[in-house]
Automatic annotation (TrEMBL), chain A:
<keyword id="KW-0472">Membrane</keyword>
<keyword id="KW-0813">Transport</keyword>
<protein>
    <recommendedName>
        <fullName>sn-glycerol-3-phosphate transport system permease protein UgpA</fullName>
    </recommendedName>
</protein>
<feature type="transmembrane region" description="Helical">
    <location>
        <begin position="257"/>
        <end position="277"/>
    </location>
</feature>
<dbReference type="GO" id="GO:0055085">
    <property type="term" value="P:transmembrane transport"/>
</dbReference>
<dbReference type="InterPro" id="IPR050809">
    <property type="entry name" value="UgpAE/MalFG_permease"/>
</dbReference>
<dbReference type="GO" id="GO:0005886">
    <property type="term" value="C:plasma membrane"/>
</dbReference>
<feature type="transmembrane region" description="Helical">
    <location>
        <begin position="96"/>
        <end position="119"/>
    </location>
</feature>
<dbReference type="Pfam" id="PF00528">
    <property type="entry name" value="BPD_transp_1"/>
</dbReference>
<comment type="subunit">
    <text>The complex is composed of two ATP-binding proteins (UgpC), two transmembrane proteins (UgpA and UgpE) and a solute-binding protein (UgpB).</text>
</comment>
<dbReference type="InterPro" id="IPR035906">
    <property type="entry name" value="MetI-like_sf"/>
</dbReference>
<keyword id="KW-1003">Cell membrane</keyword>
<keyword id="KW-0997">Cell inner membrane</keyword>
<feature type="transmembrane region" description="Helical">
    <location>
        <begin position="192"/>
        <end position="217"/>
    </location>
</feature>
<dbReference type="InterPro" id="IPR000515">
    <property type="entry name" value="MetI-like"/>
</dbReference>
<comment type="function">
    <text>Part of the ABC transporter complex UgpBAEC involved in sn-glycerol-3-phosphate (G3P) import. Probably responsible for the translocation of the substrate across the membrane.</text>
</comment>
<feature type="transmembrane region" description="Helical">
    <location>
        <begin position="60"/>
        <end position="84"/>
    </location>
</feature>
Length: 284, 436
């Protein structure tokens, strides 16, 4: 009995803050409800079919997939590159590392705000920079330009987190293994892919999941600040659409249906990750 | 020891609090609003003025963020039984709060029940029925009311040797000259509000079935005819010829180039007046929203945008009386004139408008009168407003399709077909939320 008693607080938190709201969301996804709570109509699966058949939802889903891919790939890639290079720095290493990490302390909406200022169509320095190369950026007007600004800002914000993990992962690889490898193989590039990278795989796998979750959910603040609460024809992510319909538009049923779809999506994604990718990861 | 001391002081403070409210006996009412920055300061001034004016009631204004955030906060509070007495709800949210039968007490009822006189004829034309039900009963008390007007850079027009246009036909004549003079001739800040809703009103065209949606949400559908499609074809043509600037959905992104003197004419809110006069360093003036002379019966007035104050239900009679007395104070000519002068929003009553005229306000600042004059232009069958649910999303759909149109991803025909399809689906969904 005692073990259960000790588990109780944790279980209570999970139930109150996760299971109960999830159950509420599933229930209200079958209704169309007056936001003030005076009336509601049971509409079966209408909320889901309305959502999935609308052209806009497909567009948002496609953008979310592309956005997630680029944000995850680029922020992991750059962070790995920076970590490998930082690992080799001998003098002033801690200053160097701190400089690479400080962005971690920036909150997503603030990161979005910095992105907005840098990419502002009237006064943004990045816009001026790209204009020199003949690219006339118009954030908020051009779909591609806005996506680009969003991805750059989201990647910039996420690199430090990945950097910290990769760096500590690299420092966890024992010197003796590295020395043995350098006797066997002279090419630093090959050594990295055959020895260092596989040894980093557990860290990499962990970061992959963290980054996909980040791109899916935590970029909300960045998206919100860049589109300025007016989606227009700008790209938005699935999570942002849940907010737009539910909180901004008071469509509780439609918004719940979207979050149920999102829940299922994350569930499937997690299973795939653990079933397929984790098998190839070696924990030592 | 320290702990006991703290507890004792808490108890004392609580006791003090109890006695002070008991002896003072003022009824507290809360007012949730969405007026930030300078507007928020004026709201506080109004509340302070009311509290100083009488001592039976005490109003506390609380800033709740954007319009959407304020409405959502009000809804959440209502469901928890913690609603404020007065909630400010914007034009696009009107159907949501009015559609929820029982969420609000109509402004007209609350005033009449409290024995304060009410006559809808006291309110100016474009304001009168926007927040009313289909029988013409006023539900929300219009508060910050504005309407789209055309601002122009006087220097730019002088340089090009042209006059501000009254019609879009005139605009087409003068726009090339403005372009030659080195300006982007025109920009606007809200395509759904200015080029859709008020376009309909300015041309006296039907916007939706069921009497623009006032007669009920069931089977209401959007109506888009040739005039508005022709208008957007023309706008897209102007954009391609460099006669029109489109800077996205954001309000400020479109206003900034006008403030910077790059855009010669800008369509914005009559409420933007105060802000522009503080920002720009060139002489500017304003005139009516242009219309197409070619459209039969065009040139009618516009209706208001902005927001209204709704009296939430579930409150004691005493508090409701306070709400009524606050509404009475708010609509008094003095307060309306002050609000009008400080913010640029139009005065909502004829008495306040007369007061501003008598005071000679419009002789010194004629541009401040444009909005209210436009609202009092002759009306027609389709100029009192619209009432549609999930309208925030419908505006989002419009913005999305108009944005695609401007960037060349869609055509006028396709854009309106999508707006109609998606909009009608949203309207149908909304009609089911009320449980019928």
């Amino acid at each position: 009995m005692v073990p259960y008693m000790l588990l109780l607080p944790q279980l209570a938190i999970v139930t109150i803050f996760f299971l109960w709201p999830a159950a509420e969301a599933i229930q209200s996804s079958f209704y169309l409800e007056d936001p003030f709570g005076f009336g509601s109509t049971f509409v079966g699966l209408d909320n889901f079919t309305d959502m999935l058949t609308s052209t806009d939802y497909g567009r948002v889903a496609r953008f979310t997939a592309v956005f997630t891919f680029f944000v995850t790939f680029l922020s992991l890639g750059f962070a790995l590159l920076l970590a490998v290079k930082a690992d080799k720095v001998l003098r002033g290493a801690s200053t160097y590392k701190t400089l690479l990490m400080w962005v971690y302390a920036v909150a997503p909406p603030v990161a979005g705000l910095i992105g907005v200022l840098l990419f502002d169509q009237h006064v943004g320095p990045m816009v001026d920079l790209f204009a020199m190369f003949g690219w006339k950026m118009q954030i908020g007007v051009n779909y591609f330009d806005t996506s680009f600004a969003m991805i750059v800002t989201a990647v910039w914000k996420q690199i430090p987190v990945n950097f910290i993990f990769f760096l500590s992962g690299l420092q966890g690889i024992s010197k003796s293994v590295q020395e043995a490898a350098s006797i066997d193989c002279r090419s630093g590039f090959r050594r990295f892919w055959t020895v260092t990278f596989p040894l980093l795989a557990p860290t990499g796998f962990f970061l992959l999941i963290i980054n996909i979750t980040y791109a899916f959910f935590d970029t909300f603040g960045i998206v919100d600040v860049i589109v300025k609460n007016e989606p227009g024809n700008n790209p938005v992510t699935l999570v942002y659409k849940v907010y737009l319909d539910g909180f901004r538009g008071n469509d509780l049923g439609g918004s719940s249906a979207q979050s149920v779809i999102l829940m299922a999506l994350v569930f499937i994604l997690t299973i795939i990750q653990f079933r397929l990718i984790e098998r190839r990861v070696h924990y030592t | 020891m320290a702990y006991r001391k703290t507890v004792a002081s808490f108890v004392a403070a609580a006791a003090l609090l109890g006695t002070s409210t008991a002896s003072y006996a003022a009824t507290d009412i809360a007012w949730w609003h969405a007026m930030g920055g300078r507007l928020g300061e004026v709201v506080v001034d109004i509340a302070n003025g009311y509290n100083a004016d009488q001592d039976a009631c005490k109003i506390t204004p609380v800033f709740k963020g954007t319009y959407e955030e304020t409405l959502t906060a009000g809804i959440a509070a209502f469901r928890a039984g913690e609603q404020p007495n007065i909630l400010q709800v914007f034009d696009a949210g009107a159907a949501t709060i009015i559609g929820a039968k029982g969420a609000v007490i109509p402004a007209q009822d609350i005033l009449e029940n409290a024995g304060v006189g009410f006559d809808i004829e006291d309110y100016i034309d474009g304001v009168r029925y926007f927040y009313a039900d289909s029988d013409g009963k006023m539900i929300g008390m219009p508060f910050n009311s504005s309407t789209p007007i055309l601002y122009y850079n006087v220097d730019a027009l002088k340089k090009a040797g042209v006059e501000a246009p009254k019609t879009w036909e005139e605009f087409q004549e003068i726009a090339p000259k403005l372009k030659e003079a080195g300006y982007v001739p025109l920009a606007q800040s809200h395509l759904p509000w200015i080029f859709t809703e008020n376009f309909k009103s300015r041309h006296n065209l039907q916007f939706a079935t069921n009497n623009n949606g006032y007669d009920g949400s069931k089977d209401t559908t959007l109506v888009f005819g040739e005039p508005i499609k022709n208008h957007f074809s023309a706008v897209k043509g102007w954009l391609d010829d460099g006669l029109f600037g489109y800077y996205g959905t954001g309000w400020g992104d479109n206003q900034t180039p006008f403030n910077e003197g790059k855009v010669a004419m800008w369509l914005g809110s009559s409420g933007s007046f105060g802000g522009i006069s503080k920002t720009v360093d060139f002489p500017f003036s304003a005139t009516y929203l242009p219309y197409w002379d070619a459209v039969d019966g065009a040139g009618t007035g516009t209706f208001i945008g902005g927001a209204a104050l709704f009296s939430m239900s579930g409150k004691s009679d005493e508090e409701n009386k306070c709400v009524a007395s606050f509404f009475e104070y708010l609509t008094s000519p003095e307060v309306q004139y002050m609000w009008h002068k400080e913010t640029g929003y139009v005065p909502i009553t004829n008495a306040a408008y007369d007061m501003a005229k008598k005071d000679g306000y419009y002789e010194s600042t004629p541009a401040a009168e444009v909005g209210i004059k436009q609202l009092t232009l002759p009306g027609g069958e389709w100029t009192k407003g619209y009432r549609m649910g999930f309208y925030v999303q419908i505006r989002d759909v419009m913005n999305r399709e108009y944005g695609k149109l401007m960037s060349g991803e869609t055509t006028v025909e396709d854009a309106f077909a999508t707006i109609e399809a998606d909009g009608n689906k949203l309207l149908e969904r909304f009609s089911k939320t009320t449980g019928n």
